[in-house]
UniProtKB/TrEMBL annotation:
Belongs to the metallo-dependent hydrolases superfamily. This is TatD family hydrolase. It comes from the Bacteria. GO terms for molecular function: hydrolase activity, acting on ester bonds; metal ion binding. InterPro entries: Metal_Hydrolase (IPR032466), TatD-like (IPR001130), UCP005295 (IPR012022). Residues 273-305 are annotated as: Disordered. The keyword Metal-binding applies. Keywords: Hydrolase, Metal-binding.
Amino acid sequence: MRIFDPHIHMTSRTTDDYEAMRAVGVRAVVEPSFWLGQPRTSPASFLDYFDALLGWEPFRAAQYGIAHHCTLALNPKEANDPRCLPVLDELPRYLVKDRVVAVGEIGYDSMTPAEDTALAAQLQLAAAHELPALVHTPHRDKLAGLRRTLDVVRESALPMDRVLVDHLNETTVKEAKDGGCWLGFSVYPDTKMDEERMVAVLKSYGMEKVLVNSAADWGRSDPLKTRRVGDAMLAAGFTEDDVDQVLWRNPVAFYGLSGRLVLDVEDTGAGATHEGNSILRGAPATPAEPGSGARGSEVAPAAGA
Ligand SMILES: [Zn+2]
């Protein structure tokens, strides 16, 4: 099973997660920029974060054979904080970068006038940069949030078939599908969709333009949820080709709209560095010499270390 997780916040996850993801079939991820769980206080904080999503994080992912791309934006929550708004002026110089495959996450959190303004402005940025957009839908008042989101997209210069509307569920899937956008589902351990509900949605609405993600971040979430959905699909009678469509070909098609998706991962090998930094901690362990009594990692650094 080859898997593309189209929405996961790897900055919040460990190398153990990358290892486990690779082992179950994850070969590609897209990491949308989002908030940190607490407010940023200046645009500079966004820029360092964007640089990490474009530099350090793809480097980490490559060590595990996983292709990493990102989507960049001012997220819905922080669109309400005037201290953060100047990042909108910085976005254009980031949206031209190779690994940026969409503008996102944009959309509504509390459906405020400030969020209206930021959403419209960033849909315009997506259109201007010929990028698709990843649009988050609110967790409260979901159907009203979806309707308002679709209205704003219709008024924008971005065609609906270049928009992925995320965090859908049974109450919003029909209107989103009728609207003509791509359909994103986040599968969480306790809330929103679970594997079985996801399978039921696929049975009712089909697989066309459907993307499934773990949306794993620093909260209660599971970076292996994509694989669990694939297994649940097979158990429910879907074919391997069906699973491949939902977990691989659909995300490749959507983010491929950017013209920037590169799925071959350069094998960086153990001990590789990014601007002088590596994911290793301490010198690599080496075999102990017979009778020396010393543990390899405690002796002099190996040649080349
Ligand atoms: Zn997210």
